[in-house]
User: Fold this.
Amino acid sequence: MSNTYENIAAGLEYFSTPDGVPAELNAGPGSGMGLTQNGAGPIQVSPRIEDAFQAALVNAKSKATAVTIRVTVGDAAGCTGSWSTDDGQTWTQFKLNDGTILDTRGYDAGTVIDGDHPDYYGDGNGPRFFADTEVYPNPVVVVDGTQDLHIGFHNLFGSTWIDDVVLETNPDMGGGAGLPWTESWDSLDLDTAKWETAGHNPPMFHMAPIDPGDGDLAFLMGNAALDWSTKLRSKVGWPRGENLRCTFDLFGLDDTSRLGMDFVHTYPGASGFHGPFHSTADIGENIYATIDAGMDFWWNIIGFEEGGAATGLQTTNFTADDAFHAAMHPAGRDPEEAVGRDTGIKMRFWAGDVSGFFMEWSLDGGVTWTPGATWPDSNVYDTRGQDMMTRPDDEVVPTGNATLLYLGFSTAQGGVFIDNICVGNDSNPCVQGTPTPNEVDHWTFY
Assistant:
């Protein structure tokens, strides 16, 4: 019979700082609940989940103040988790105090993400978990790949109540993160469980759903200053794998005054979308610096971007070909309605299972698709599976390789609408129109 703490494959453990271990390795106070995998010691140095989570646990003294905890394992290895204080209506993903998301899904079992720490346990097994905030995307040292998982609980001191245990497949990580994940802006009020915005201050700065004039809501982005301060980011992300992809519609606004806006430029002037896949959900990060599989732009020139752009006016990436630009620019020109939905463009971005991406676009609602290609040679842009790429300026740089991808969008100044977003993969593909609900297996005990 083994101790409960020795066989945690994916879960939480209470810990305190052992003698001689620097307290900063816990990224916070020296005790609390941490995300643990691959077994643990009786006093485990784990990546301590943020203070807000610890405070919620302290306050959980009744059913009314209970904390709902969800631990999610990767398809092959790794884990992450989230927590809720409103009975699962909204969720917060496990992270450190500095905002680092705790998620090892997508890594191979046994991967040592950071093996430089000394063996504080003296057992010859090396480090397991350390909250080293310089390690991205998380501080986990050894990724667990146990396939035969069992449920287990144990208390250290005092008393703890456990109730309403549910085991499910393809879980919703918060804000509807189970795939396929869709957004069609059914309300003028932004769903804050799914999204976070910055810079919304109309009429000169807009980042919210709005009626473009046809009664069908869409998300309008606009900015009167060239500062990329208006941005939209998803609060949830998805691991690469199984051909993860995102599809969305884009069209422009060429008469900002008709909607009471003043963005300085009208579409397609200084208009882009800076997305869709990003390496972080951090709303404080520059939107152009975190694009991991998407498109950036330089004034009216749209370019392919991965691994993040150095500045908002990016000139070193591959430019999209003339056919794509011709499809983009009419997307805002409807002389009758000045809305452009009927001349809009649908795009689909495919993230490589490990790195890189491929995109395609459609002008007939997704019936036929054209592969994204580069200017001036019209070579199809596809970096999936590549570790490195050579840019047009001959600099060799890494391709996008973030293991967890989030959605993000922003324009520079012109008015741009985003609508009908869908994220899916091979097991859970996007279904245009009404998505088909996923079948979920539940196992419950009380």
